[in-house]
Amino acid sequence: MKKRLLPLLFAALAPVMNAAPIEAWDDIYVTGRFSYTSEHVFRGFKQSNAAFQFFGEVSYPVYQGNIYTGLFYNQPLADADKSSEFDFHLGYVFPLTKELLIDFGQLYYWYPQGNTGAPAQRGAGYLRGTSRSTETFLGFCYDTSPVLGGINLNPALYYYYDWNVDKHTVEGSLAYVWDLSGLAGLKGLSLTPRGFFGYQSASRPYGDTGALQDFFRRSESLYYGASLTLDWRLNDYTGFYLACFYTGNYDTGGNPYRHENNFVGASVGVKFDL
Fold first, then answer.
1. What is the pTM of this model?
2. Which residue in 64, 83, 169, 206 could disulfide with 160, CB within 3.0 to 4.6 Å?
3. What is the residue extent of each domain of the chain?
4. What is the distance between the alpha carbons of residues 210 and 85, in angstroms, rounded to a whole number?
5. Does residue 209 have a pLDDT over 60?
6. How many CB atoms lie within 10 A of CB 185?
């Protein structure tokens, strides 16, 4: 097993999940995480208040890379008008060079109870005005250790295309895993600061609802954020992490506004090697 690079894909789904690097496995790898978060924020836009979240994934080596599939689940705890959320994903990560990975695949977002609310409450219509959405993604992750004297800043750049709302998203991020095992005397303890910045543009922000397309024909926004994650691996199979985040957005379309979110999340992660 060799630790590689921090992925952006699942940090976009739920920043609390971004506590471990991409890893190259020689056999089937199954991971599961349960978490509580004070606010669920997706690409700078608040989706709900306090929520229970689950993330699960199965990875299997194919050729020189890994094929993976899994599920992210979000259940609002305090918002009766907000739907639960299921995000299914399938992807393949492959090393182009020793330092550079390519990651591509498909995401499917599903809101069983649908979504309601004013345009601003829907995060400019991004997924909040639709009951389902399909997204294709392509990303690149780089290990800077050889050029920065052993320091890996995990730069990542991803592109997403949402077929339902005709949305283009580009997001970049940096992250550094600081091993605190020797400093704190606790084996498996690490601290990960991470920052990200993105742009998204949708020409059909209300997706499959067919509502108000003329009122809000195109939606564009910039979003940004930072997180600090304290991760404690208790053993090879279980771990705990506490994360705090800041995130915000700015709508660059015809209806400019700024909306900022600050939220804290805590999670218990369980991992299994099969």
1. 0.82
2. 169
3. 2-273
4. 20
5. no
6. 8
